[in-house]
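Predict the holo structure. Ligand: magnesium ion.
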Amino acid sequence: MKNQETKNYFIDTEFHEHKKPVKFLGITIAQVWTIDLISIGIVCEDGRTYYAMNRDLNLKHAKKNKWLKENVLDKLPAKQELYPPYGSPRLLQESMRWLPMEQIRQEVIDFCGGKPDSDEGGSFYSYYANGTPIFYGYYADYDWVVFCWIFGTMMQLPNGFPMFAKDLKQMLDDKLTDFQISLGEVTKGEPTEKDREATFDEKLKWLKSQPNYPTQKNEHNALDDANWNFKLFQFIKERWQKNNNKTVSTNVQSEQ
Ligand SMILES: [Mg+2]
């Protein structure tokens, strides 16, 4: 029995792209590109959150990537059993979330309310108690590949999961492309006869300067990024529902 309701989940991942050596008799014979999950954050529209870091990751190898080391890896808590957790309560809590992929796989299904199908056995899911999941990301394509690889191939995605994520960046760009607003209005300059339709970049800059456009905090923490994705989704919905894409208004009210 399929749950006809749907539930929105906002995901973000941090990942390590690198060339993995292919060995034959202990000798590296080739190198192939791959993506490893570092961490995953999921925020459900009902307020629940999920966070895990990949314990199976080759952390030492990943730290050779300078950008990753400085922006992502050095900000992660130590693995609990190696070092006593310390620091903020949040860091302490997160230090317990270094989990093997197998556990992350099951926990993500559980987080989405997946119930094993009694007819097919323990690994077949067709019912999601919270509603059939819909996933959203921001610049979502890479996140989606990393997310799918938690489960294996595309065909190994839990039954009932969609085979794509919705991209908030794409949603925002599409809305903005169709949105009609003049340069004078976005720059709040004096109206002139030479006023013209604002370009896409001008509209985007204006939108990002609106007081209720969500601010990104603690960027590259997968859970904070996922939470920002949820806020951006709410912003897009409120912004365009309110204006019905027709009324030109620079007076965006903050939702209190
Ligand atoms: Mg991120």
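The chain has two domains: 6-167, 168-243. The mean pLDDT is 88.
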